[in-house]
Write a structure and sequence with these properties.
Blueprint lengths: L4 H34 L8 E9 L2 E9 L4 E6 L7 E8 L2 E8 L5 E8 L3 E8 L4 E8 L1
Length: 138
């Protein structure tokens, strides 16, 4: 009887390893679905916003357009800060933008605490530049 014990143990280990592999493989799909479910486009935020962008490259007046489909654009009155195109999302009161500048494709990330009338937060670029911004709706 003891001769069959190693065989049964190896079968048990094979079942455990197979179960773990299936669990790990299938767990990535729900994560992706959850990330997509977190993206919220709030009708309260859709529209035109204006204010200032400050940072390591200077200050500029900026105009942002947040669209109902989650896309956004931004223009500034600066030769240094390039126009942006990207996407925006809201998770709770956390507002974020992921964009590229139109000059050389630098990745821009912006985060703010959202209200219906003001977005105030920070930004960073893949180039190492960073700063703050404050825009109001209207």
């Amino acid at each position: 009887m003891n001769a069959h014990l190693p065989l049964r143990l190896s079968h048990l280990l094979l079942i455990i390893v197979s179960t773990l592999l299936l669990t790990c493989t299938s767990s990535s799909e729900p994560e992706e679905e959850m990330e997509e479910a977190e993206v919220v486009v709030s009708a309260d935020l859709v529209g035109s916003w204006s204010g200032t962008v400050d940072g390591s490259l200077g200050s500029a007046s900026a105009n942002f357009s947040l669209e109902a489909d989650g896309t956004m654009t931004a223009d500034t009155n600066s030769q240094i800060l390039c126009p942006l195109e990207g996407t925006w999302r809201l998770s709770g009161r956390s507002f974020s933008i992921t964009a590229e500048d139109e000059c050389d494709g630098t990745n821009i990330s912006m985060q703010a605490t959202a209200s219906k009338t003001t977005l105030s937060g920070s930004w960073s670029a893949s180039s190492g530049n960073n700063g703050t911004f404050r825009i109001t709706k209207g």
